[in-house]
Each structure stands twice: as C-alpha cells, then as structure tokens.
Amino acid sequence: MSASRRVVLLAGGVGGSTFARGLREHLRRTDPHARITIVANTGDDMWLTGVRLQPDVDSLLYALAGVNDTERGWGRAGESERVSAELRAWGAGWPWFTLGDLDLGTHLARTGWLREGAGVAEVVRRLCGRWPIGAEILPMTEAEVDTIVTVRDGADERPMHFQEWWTRYRASLEPVRFDNPGVAEAEPAPGVARAIADADVVVVAPSNPVVSVGPIVAVPGIRVALRETDAPVVGVSPIIGGRAVRGMAEVCLAAIGAECSASGVAQLYGARDDGGLLDAWLVAEEDAGAAPAVDALGIRAGVAPLWMRDLETSAALAAAALELARRGSAGR
After folding, report:
1. Is residue 134 part of a domain?
2. Is the four-CA dihedral 60, 63, 68, 70 of positive or negative sign?
3. Domain that holds residue 286
C-alpha cells in the first residue's frame, strides 16, 4: 500500500487549510500522482443578505488557490469592502460581519447555482474548477445543518448561529451546547463515503474538534464510513503545550465536558477499535508526556513538531502524520 496514493482529509477552515497546503506540498514532492480529497465542514454555513456562505469551504479553496489573505487569516487577498459598507448604510445584514467584494462574488455565484438547482457538491466543484488547487474539495453533506450555539445569557439561555457567537461575541458568551439541527437525518455528500472507503489513509486535520470536525463526523454515513474503511485513520492534535492553537477551541471543549489536552481530544474522538474514529494520534513535542495516555486509549501515539509556521513546517507535519499512519497500517 502506498500511504499517500489516495489521501482523505477531514478539515475545517483556517487550521485545516494550512494543513491542506502542507499536505499537498509534501505529496507533490514525494508522490506527484497522489489524489487528495478534502471533506470540508459545512456546519459554519449560513444565509446572510440572501446569499449562502460556506466559510470553511472557501477558506480551503482560497488557501489552495493561493488567493487567501494570509495576514487576516481569512477571505481573499487584495479585498475591498465597498458592498459591505453599502449594506451597513442600508441597515442590512450584520454590521459586525464584513464580506469583502471579491468574497461576495463567490457567494453570489454559489447562490445563483443553488437557486438554479445545482447540488452543493456540484457547486463546490464549479468553484474549485476556477483554479488548479491540486485537490478535490467535497462538502460533508448537501443538507443545511448550520451550527447553532445555545449560550447562557444571565439566568436565561438563548440560541444563535455559530457565526454570531464566534465573530460578533468572540466566544465570550458561555456556550451551553452546540447543535446541528437536521444532522441526524443528513447523508454524506456525493463522493464522500466512496472517497473514505477507497482511501489509503484518512487524516483528521488539526481543526477545532467540536465545531469543525464534530459536525463532519456527526453525519451518520461519514462515521460509518470511517469505521469501515481499510485505511488507517490518523489525527493531528489541535492542542500544543496544553493549549488550543486557536484559543476559542478551549471554550468549545469545556462546553462539552472535554479536557483541553492532547490526550483529552484523543479521548473525545476515541479509538476505532473501540467504536471511535482514530487508529493513531500525532501530538506535539511539548505534549510528548501525553503519549502513554493516548496509547492507553488504544490509539497509537506519535510525537512531532506541530507548529505550522510556513509551508515547510506544514509539509513536514503532513509527512509526520502520513508516516505515523504508515507505521501502523501493516497490522490492519
């Protein structure tokens, strides 16, 4: 088996796209004919001012196309924001949620195709066809299963869209729970289950385990496909030195009663041999002491530098994840 021939990556937005670029770079150097399929979180999706937004899909697309804004970490490079200013003048939309003009062009194209009857997977395919991104991006599902956060507001609880909680309040309101209404009845988007079944290796990106990876594996058919595939499933910890790389993930983990540690997230995902998701789990050098606890869960632990500071360190991390998967694949 060539561990890099057919690689499936489960990913959210910013962290997932950084890892995806590193994975693509590593495979370009070592196996230029490898196929990368990215199953993207669509729990962040939303309707706003009449258009459909897919933040994680677009972050992956823009990063792989090389047109993302690397300073802000989201959106398109060289953006203008005239349309958002005009929407604010009309009192439309969310004044705290700015859509760049180039980004809005993506949303308008997506919405137009959806209203013409195209499926979500087909729309994503058309968007990805604009640039040679070196990967296939698939939405996790074609159903609308937007993430709703129930927050504690004084003595009361109230629901809001994840984007409002994340962007407007910067996760400062205490979350009580996270829901994806309709996800229990959702199905994997076309191509997702087959990609996982045919994979040589499946990688869980170092994305937020609760609101990025969580919605993906909550789609019933995806969890089944992950358990049944012959490919090893290796995850990369989003925790470095006992802290989430993106701070608000700590709040998400606390809300569901999960420990914010490398071993805590491994326990949240669980061992595949015990009905969970993982065969192997890559932790940071700073968290090497957690390796025995991960092994005790029935998940093979590996240790590597996890900071993705540039393309080289991201490619090295991808190489380490694939090597960890390869080391254990012979026993399956």
Report:
1. yes
2. positive
3. 6-143+188-251+260-329
